[in-house]
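Subject: UDP-N-acetylglucosamine--peptide N-acetylglucosaminyltransferase SPINDLY

B.,
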Amino acid sequence: MSLKTERLLSRAKKLAKNGQVKEAKEIYSNIIKTFPNNLLARKEIKLLENKKVANPTQAQLDEVMRFYSSGEIEQALKYVESLIKDYPNEFLLFNICGACHSEIGSIEPAIENFKKAIALKINYSEAQFNLGVAFQKLNQLDNASEYYLQAINSQHAYPSAHNNLGIIFLNKGKIEAAVKSFEWAIAYSPNYAEAYNNLGSALQELKQFKNAKKQFEKACSINPNYAKAFHNLGILSEIINQPKDAVSRYERAVEIEPEFAEAYRNLSKVKKFKVKDPQINQIYLLYSGNKLNVADKARLGFALADINKSLGNHEDYIKYLNEGNRLRKKEIKYSFEESQSFHSIITKLFSSTQPIVQSSSKNTSDIKPIFIVGMPRSGTSLVEQIISSHNSVHGAGELLNFRNIITPILDNHLSKKNNAISEEDMLIIRKEYLDSLASLQAKETIITDKMPMNFRLLGFILSAIPDAKIIHLTRDPMATCWSNFNHYFTAGNGFSFDQVDLAKFYLLYQEMMTFWHKLFPNKIYDLNYENLTINQEEETQKLLEYCDLEWDENCLDFHNNQRAVLTASSAQVRKKIYQGSSEAWKQYEKNLQPLIKGLGAN
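Prediction pasted inline below.
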């Protein structure tokens, strides 16, 4: 007997053991055709032919799928488990059983069943995909990615696997990889509305707004009832300064999905409501009902605050603002101790050793970064709009790049209990950050990074990139904190949702900026927001001089700058500078006593 025949017999036996009788019989038949006297093959195929059928009937499968499709999941689960007792080697049954468990939220049993299905059938792409979904529900994204990739390797033409893998890449900040995954999903399924919507989100992250808009519009055209795509189109319309389009897209989203809380919140920011607007009553009814989770109720609280403010109902404005903030803090479970701990770690690190300052001669990049930092809502967006109006500057907006680069290095440092960041680490930080700016492919070499919270990382910035320009915005403490308190932040800034937390964090911020000024004298440029609004031209001249930029009249006409703005201040920075915004809190003074007391502002 040849070695090849032995291998075929071995494979057929393994298939038969795993319940894949049809495939095993086919191999035995082929062996007998070639070698009619192969007694082993004849014996095995006879045993299989005499053996009880090891597969469920089509009628049985149809019955279990009827239960599943009609939403009778418990009945489907009970039936499929009885079938598994009769057909313990049928991979399809384990996959269905896993899907039932997943549907009712029993994720661990679902995973167990999907793995059994894969053990019974090699390269079972559907079960691999389902395993990815199960792990994604547990937020075990690395495991989910692994099984999506296995499903794609087993069957590359698997649009859902590409799409779900893209979502994970998008959430991890691997935007280019996400774009490729969504493009594969669309290539295999040209009418896949969700993939177009997700591709739009990824391209928006890359600031490719024109292309992103096309993807959102394609998603909406494929599925005219796709509320999420209309909502995303509304957000993009705000970013590119098309407020009327934003209103119509948000309204379409809530028309399709009347309980879409986030769409109502965004609509409340851009629409000028009238007293008898039917949407107002719709929001009130939704808010007073018992269907909402904490997150959506918080969103609607902020929406009602905005609406009542625009209508001049100040008592209701404060009422819903307080309620929205309370619910938002409850939702995100913010603890001031976490902010305090991070502050202590950073100040201790830079107190224990002199920071390592790299020589500017080591700079192999032409890019010159300008960091604009300060408390959120202190005027950082306005200053970036001014500087980015200069013909030599690219405004990159709020970038997470520096924090993302720092995090693994800082975590490694803490795990090893080191007392200093190494020179090698600083060089890595410098290279990775400048490379991340280069990936923006801006024609200008001077690039602004307007992430306010980078004020906590100035030690790393000035140690790794000593030639960076640092602009620190200061503003009246009460004005700054009030502006934080009456704003809904979609991510981060958990300190802003409680007046006591807000005051404590502001004092922490002041302490940290004093620390950096002492450690890096003459390296941080302080710019006062109120002074800028009063003496615009003079302060702009000094600002440009600090940045080593020649005078450019466009910087005075910053409101005409058509660049996309992704921050909460997108509407304000498209208006001329106006004075008095720092006094707005005073009409609500009686409602802000915890904040006033916390700041010592009496």
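The two ends are 98 Å apart (CA to CA).

T.
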